[in-house]
Design brief:
It contains 14 helices and two strands; from the N terminus they run H-H-H-H-H-H-H-H-H-H-E-H-H-H-H-E. It is mainly alpha-helical and 358 residues long. It has two domains: 2-237, Growth Hormone, Chain: A (Up-down Bundle), CATH 1.20.1250; 240-288 and 319-358, no CATH class. Strands 1-2 form a two-stranded antiparallel sheet. Helix 3 (56-82) crosses helix 7. Keywords: Ion transport, Membrane, Transmembrane, Transmembrane helix, Transport. It holds the Pfam family FPN1. It is a multi-pass membrane protein. It is found in: Membrane. It comes from Cyprinus carpio.
Length: 358
């Protein structure tokens, strides 16, 4: 009957989707983001516990993370560009998860034998172990994996289709926001109801399982999307838009239309939701940066993002009192307005480019 046929069709479509590259990327990204959010929340709490219930080590932690990406972002991006996609993804995944695992083991030992460790070297062993954990934090930071998967892989997976690319970007952002809310709640409940040692063990177990699942899923995506293995050499400069134009030529289309940006609508949406602006910038980078330079450009962008993070931490430190909050709000608005203005100028420049005829 028609009803049974539709049911079978829906089941078959669902199975195809579940085995497809998009779903595998979503699951892999969700596991990675969840573990990352749990760890960054938990490590801040752990450092407060270890250093006499003050924020010194937590502040150093934020400074180390931001400073490391600021200094190494471009180098990480260049490394992503120069190596095969599967090796970059696997190496980044392995380093990230193993670093968290080792750090979790160290913290479990510190919390289990805290009094004994504090007596060794007049407490300097605790400081040494904390410094070691901070070093591991640098190693586990997922900048390389984020650049590789979210800035490069999904562009290839979507076949350079703008609509599909926008959809994947939006879905990845939704996953990011959901994990940003739920992951700290989950690990916080474990730490509250059990103990810090159990919390470390929970994160350790999650990362080991996540490592295996993500490795399998990313390997499968690499196999079922042949285009991922065809990485252009460094001297080949062909952007997303150029490839799109080539496809239009091959389909017999004689008139090429440049990108159209409804600047006023975009700026209006930015006022209501900064995330939409971030998605717009992300897709602009994906579309306009040539494939052989995506890593280094996105690495520099990550560095600039963390530079702004450093500035905002410095401003908060400089004006920590509640009565100064209004000043910080005004400064934030000025930064947002500056970003909007720069985007407006960019979009205006793009719209003024002459149409290309073939």
């Amino acid at each position: 009957s028609n009803k049974s046929f539709k049911t079978l069709y829906l089941i078959e479509s669902a199975l195809i989707y579940l085995k497809g590259p998009k779903f595998l990327i979503y699951v892999s990204g969700a596991l990675s983001m969840w573990g990352d959010r749990m760890w960054h929340f938990a490590i801040s709490v752990f450092l407060i516990e270890l250093y006499g219930h003050n924020l010194l080590l937590t502040g150093i932690f934020g400074l180390v993370v931001a400073g490391s990406v600021l200094l190494l972002g471009a180098l990480i991006g260049d490394w992503v560009d120069r190596n095969p996609r599967n090796k970059v993804a696997h190496a980044s995944l392995f380093i990230q998860n193993i670093s968290v695992t080792v750090c979790s083991i160290v913290l479990m030992l510190v919390f289990s034998y805290k009094k004994w460790i504090e007596e060794i070297w007049d407490g300097w062993l605790t400081v040494t172990l904390c410094a070691y954990c901070l070093w591991l934090v640098i190693a586990e930071h997922n900048t390389a994996l984020t650049i590789a998967i979210q800035r490069d892989w999904i562009v290839v997976i979507t076949g350079y289709n703008r609509g599909h690319l926008a959809g994947m970007n939006a879905t990845m952002r939704r996953i990011d926001q959901v994990t940003n809310i739920l992951a700290p709640l989950a690990v916080g409940q474990v730490m509250t109801l059990a103990s810090n040692v159990v919390g470390c063990g929970f994160i350790l177990g999650w990362n080991l399982v996540s490592l295996i699942v993500e490795f399998i899923f990313l390997s499968r995506v690499y196999r079922i999307v042949p285009a991922l293995s065809a990485k252009p050499p460094a001297m080949e400069h062909q952007s997303y838009l150029e490839k799109k134009r080539e496809r239009k030529r091959s389909q017999g289309k004689t008139r090429l239309k440049p990108m159209k940006y409804n600047v006023y609508l975009k700026l209006h949406s930015v006022v209501w939701c900064l995330w939409s602006f971030d998605l717009t910038v992300t897709q602009l980078l994906q579309e306009t940066i040539c494939e052989s330079e995506r890593g280094v450009v996105n690495g520099v962008q990550s560095s600039m993002n963390y530079l702004m993070d450093l500035l905002h931490f410095i401003m908060v430190i400089s004006a920590p009192q509640p009565q100064h909050f209004g000043i910080l709000v005004i400064i934030s608005i000025l930064f947002i307005f500056t970003g909007h203005t720069m985007y407006f100028l960019y979009a205006r420049k793009i719209k003024r480019k002459p149409r290309t005829n073939t």
